Amino acid sequence: MAKRIDKVAKAAHIKRNTEGTSNEISFSVLDAAKNSLEGEGNQHPFGTISLFTLPGKRKAVSTPTKDEGLALTQREMPRSSSRAQRKFERKQRRAEQRKASEGMRGSHRAREPRSLSAEVASRKRARKRGRLIVSFALVMILLAVAGGLTWWGAGVYQAQQTYKGVLSGAISELSETDELLAEIDEVVVDLSNGEVTSLSLDDMVAVQKQIGEEKSSRIEELDAAEETINQVAIKSSSETSDSPDSKASDAITARRQMLTSGSALIDDVVGVLQAKEETMKGWQLILAADGLAREAAQFASSATIGDMQSSTEKSQQAIESFSKAKTAMQNAEQLFAQLDLSGYLNYIDKRLEAQGYAIESNNALINRDTQTATEQNDAYNKAEQQAGELAQALPEDPTELLETAFSEKTTSSREMYENARSQAQSADAFIRDYLGTFNK
Predict the structure, then answer these.
(1) Cα angle 376, 289, 198; round to 5
(2) Cα separation, 213 vs 215, whole angstroms
(3) Which residues, including other chains, have CB under 8 Å from residue 17's CB and lie 6 or more apart?
(4) Of 275, 226, 277, 280, whose CA–CA distance to 251 is shortest?
(5) Residue 353 phi, psi dihedral angles, 5° rounding
(6) pLDDT at 17 exceeding the cut of 60
(7) What three-state secondary structure class fits 396?
(8) Is the pLDDT of residue 184 over 60?
(9) Contact at 8 Å (CB) between 266 and 204?
(10) Of the candidates 409, 406, 421, 408, which has an alpha carbon nearest to the alpha carbon of residue 260?
(11) Cα–Cα distance between 277 and 331 in angstroms, integer?
(12) Helices (H), 62-115
């Protein structure tokens, strides 16, 4: 029986540390083996049958639980079991090594713990590599941006140079009108600083002639410059009012307005100066006629026939001078439509009337017609009195009327010219700053 139990124990491969494994055997088998080794339990009580001598098929022995298992000590374990245990441990170590190797090849490798200094050095190297990669990427990006900006800047610079060249050419065409405008502007400045009647008629006629000869060609030059500016504006697609081509267009418009209003102003200056000449001519004739009338009155104070005849002769000369004065005054009004010399004309008419009465009175005295002479003399005195009243309303200097008339006539054109000149100066200053130099 003991040999049988020995065989069963060997067949069971009892090993150490097999608690809870498939190598565990039932609690009853271990007890039987233990009793056999210690010499206990060789005799079964009467009426009982040994576990290992049951006839027929063996009953399946259930695997004991963890608490039911019994671990053998090293001293109690047979040699065959010790060898099996070592073999099992070797297999287990190889399995663990394979598992560790597979874990190292996986995405989540188990790392051996490193020292603090090694970890810090590793992280520093990682950060340095990161900074180098970022720096390289930034350098490449900056180089690409710089290259793009250089290419774009070269294109913009070339376009700007072309733009400036065309604009400069247009300004050169535009500046051709400045010589003529300078002559007009000088007259305007003189008008601002003094009276129009102080200007020289010959000088103004010369300017008027120059305008007549050059105005049409200067307008054509402005039109050509404007066409060029419009082409530049189309290419630049500029819509702002402060762009160079817009300012150049303003300069062209201003110069065209200066030529138009300036030429009209010069015409008015020439007209008023011509009217001045006729007015002053008439005024001198009035003064001469007045002297002759006074001489006639002195001769008429004598009762002799000779003095009466001399008085009549002087009155006739006075009438002739007054008539010429009237013609001159009328011519002045025609030369400058805004000039009103009606006061002088009414005065002349009354003096002419008085001289007619004086001649009739002299003739009556020569014919010894005292009554008629007295009536004509009374009419003469009345006409002279009325003429004196009209003279009180006349200005001491006829040029005052000329200044007033010129100011009323040219107020609009002078304002337009001044505004256009201011606009041209502003536009020229902008273009001069843009181009660096402005061709004049």
Answers:
(1) 145
(2) 6
(3) 71, 85
(4) 226
(5) -60, -45
(6) no
(7) coil
(8) yes
(9) yes
(10) 421
(11) 10
(12) 79-105
Residue 382 to residue 60: CA distance in whole angstroms: 177
- Mean pLDDT is lowest, of 25-34, 135-144, 296-305, for 25-34
Question: Between the CA of residue 373 and those of 94, 165, 318, what are the distances in Å?
Answer: 172, 91, 20
Integer Cα distance of 358 and 353 in angstroms: 9
Q: What sign does the CA torsion over 47, 48, 54, 58 have?
A: positive
Q: Is 317 helix (H, G, I), strand (E, B) or coil?
A: helix
Distance separating alpha carbons of residues 76 and 99, to the nearest angstrom = 33
Burial of 438 (0-12, 13-18, 19+ CB in 10 A): middle
Tens digit of each residue's pLDDT (9 = 90 or more) over 385-435 = 999 999 999 998 899 999 999 999 999 999 999 999 999 999 888 888 877
Coil, helix or strand for 369?
coil
Apex 328 CA angle, 322 and 332, nearest 5: 145
Q: What angle do CA 331, 335, 337 make, to 5 degrees?
A: 105
Helix residue spans in 336-439 (DSSP H) = 342-366, 370-393, 399-435
Higher confidence at residue 129 or residue 356? 356
Is residue 230 a contact partner of residue 243, using CB atoms and an 8 Å limit? no
* CB burial readout 340-361, b (16+ within 10 A) else e: ebebbbebbebbbbbbbbbbbb
185-191: list long-range contacts, CB under 8 Å, 24+ apart: 185/258, 185/262, 185/421, 187/262, 187/265, 187/266, 187/269, 188/262, 188/265, 188/414, 188/417, 188/418, 188/421, 191/265, 191/269, 191/414
DSSP calls for 107-167: SSPPPPP--HHHHHHHHHHHHHHHHHHHHHHHHHHHHHHHHHHHHHHHHHHHHHHHHHHHH
Tokens representing 129 are: 């590599």
> Phi and psi dihedrals of 18, rounded to 5?
-110, 20
Which residue do the tokens 């006061």 mark?
A: 343
Q: What number of residues does the chain have?
A: 440
Single-letter residue type at 26? S
Amino acid at 168: S
Element (H, E) at 284: helix 244-300
Name the nearest CA neighbour of 430 among 254, 292, 306. Answer: 254
Q: How many Cβ atoms are within 10 Å of 274's Cβ, its own excluded? A: 18
